[in-house]
Amino acid sequence: MQVEVLEPHGFCAGVTAALRKALALVRDGAADTVYCLHELVHNEIVVGDLTRRGFKFVESVADIPEGATALFSAHGVSPAVRRAAAARRLKVMDATCPFVTRVHTAARDFAARGLPVVVIGHENHAEVKGIVGEVSDVAGHSPAITANSPTLSTALGGAQTIGVVSQTTMNADEVAALVAQLKERFAVETMAEVCNATKERQDAVKAFDGDALLVLGSANSSNTRRLMEVARCRAFRAGTLEEVRALDLRGVRRLGVTSGASTPESFLAEAVAYLKEDGK
Ligand code: SF4
After folding, report:
1. Which domain holds residue 229?
2. Is 127 among the residues known to form the active site?
3. How many domains are there within the chain?
4. Which of 15, 46, 258 to mutate to test the pocket of ligand 1 (most atoms within 8 A of CB)?
5. Which residues contact 154 (CB under 8 A, 6 or more apart)?
6. Cut 0.90: pTM above it
7. Residue 67 phi/psi, 5° resolution?
8. Are residues 106 and 190 in the same domain?
């Protein structure tokens, strides 16, 4: 079996920066006093490593002891979460990716101008919750609505102009198609684009013309799942070496390998070494 690693793959700038912040806390000997709100990045290997180094992971600011250090994940948080952290006198370290912050700023600006705000994204994803919370923070503005909501038409009512933003890790083609659909009905002001890292990794996958693709990354990683979706061949996912070993790759002659934006390079190297050995 021929194994071909696609470029680019793996850590994006936002994940690299978030991990740098976390590892600085390790060097300062402070990791075991830090509470990370949500997974710092959506990868089980990274979260496992940080847990072993002493970080604690919680899902709510209310679970962080007053006065402790809170590390906000790369996916960003809503203004309400920031206020809750301040009320608990938490020392905040913010690892929000700057590309996510740009989306918050755009959504807030649309809301401040009174435009209904549509968010293209998965409503239960931490990033989308933060963006929706940003819009809700604008006094008197109606809540943001996700593009796939069954109540989208009702919510937009008689609006003529709407603001549209997107979760940064969506399928770039689907975002473009949804924006085009909305433009048929409304004047659309938009910053609905996936981030560069997401687009570049998706473009590399779409250009791969082998007979199977393996995406290395965790099941809860949005960008990992989107890489599987855009593949033009059979696609597999594995989050650990055990999962790689369990794959049934019989009949695959040319396998492409890529990894999500939060998947460590060390895992990719291990997986590729195993696949090359196994495929001899
Ligand atoms: S995938 Fe994009 S938005 Fe998310 S952390 Fe990486 S660069 Fe930032």
Report:
1. 2-10+197-278
2. yes
3. 3
4. 15
5. none
6. yes
7. 85, -5
8. yes
The domain boundary, picked from 74, 96, 118, lies at 96
Q: Which of 133, 160, 194 is the last residue of a domain?
A: 194
Ligand 1 pocket member 210 (CB < 6 A):
no
Question: How does pLDDT run across 193-223, given as a tens digit for each residue?
Answer: 899 999 999 999 999 999 999 999 999 999 9
Place of tokens 């923070």: 137
- Which domain CATH number covers 82? 3.40.50.11270
Q: Which amino acid is at 67?
A: G
Q: Is the CB of 13 under 6 A from ligand 1?
A: yes
- Interhelix angle for 172-185 vs 196-207, to 10°? 110
Of the listed 44, 127, 134, 193, which one is catalytic?
A: 127
Q: At 120, is the secondary structure helix, strand, or coil?
A: strand
Q: Which residues contact 256 (CB under 8 A, 6 or more apart)?
A: 4, 5, 6, 205, 208, 210, 212, 213, 214, 233
- Per-residue pLDDT of 32-51, as tens digits, reads 899 999 999 999 999 999 99
One domain, residues 19 and 106: no
- The DSSP 8-state label assigned to residue 41 in this structure reads S
Element (H, E) at 36: strand 34-37
Model confidence over 171-190: pLDDT tens digits? 999 999 999 999 999 999 99
Report residue 278 as tokens: 């196994």
The H or E element containing residue 163 is strand 161-166
pLDDT value of residue 157: 84
Cα distances from 11 to residues 8, 72, 150, 264, in angstroms, run 9, 18, 35, 7
